[in-house]
Amino acid sequence: MNRTIVDLLADNAEHAHAFAGRFDEVQEGQHPEAVTICCSDSRVLQDQLFGNETPGRLFTCGNIGNRVVQRTDAGEVVSGDVLYPLAHAGTRTAVVVGHTGCGAVTATYGALTGDLDGDDEPSGIRHCVDLLGPHLEPGVDLLPDGLDDAAAVDRLVEYNVDRQVEQLVNSDDVPDDTDVVGVVYDFQDVYGGERGEVHVINVDGERDPEVLRGEHGEVADRVRRLWTY
Q: What keywords are assigned to this protein (predicted)?
């Protein structure tokens, strides 16, 4: 057997031993507190970044670029995997989780600036970049002059989170009483806090840090943005 699978199964045995008694309350269904939409980057530990060890607490969605939309014959709509807990499990909190150094944003930035030939990518990856492209293109035009590529990407990470939050806030399919929060997970020392901290950048479409700190004083020290536009 592939050594990686052997190791994964061994780790799963430890997980099963530790968690065996934690599934009693969710045998018949789920009512998660929040749905999180994270990038599927292997460095983004979707449950661990929120300290979650409770089955049924978080409904986790992952894809490259932490996108909330999918493309259908009717155009772009909020993805079904994001909508499911909102529509069927009583969840009323959605958290869009971007992260520093995002590869999907990097690839989209490269495609928009002509530094990357997207035609060289497999069609599935091109599809994901194509979904992000129209949403990020206005942000590229707004970037301050003089940024290196890494700094530009981290600002576009915020811009992308803002656009995904906007999609949820404006969608008729998302219940009106849903709280939508946009955050950035930093493991590259970009925001100046601890590695692995989550920084709040957007709440229900509001992205002014001063306003957010005033309205959400209990988490004021976690509100931080790299740029406003």
A: Lyase, Metal-binding, Zinc
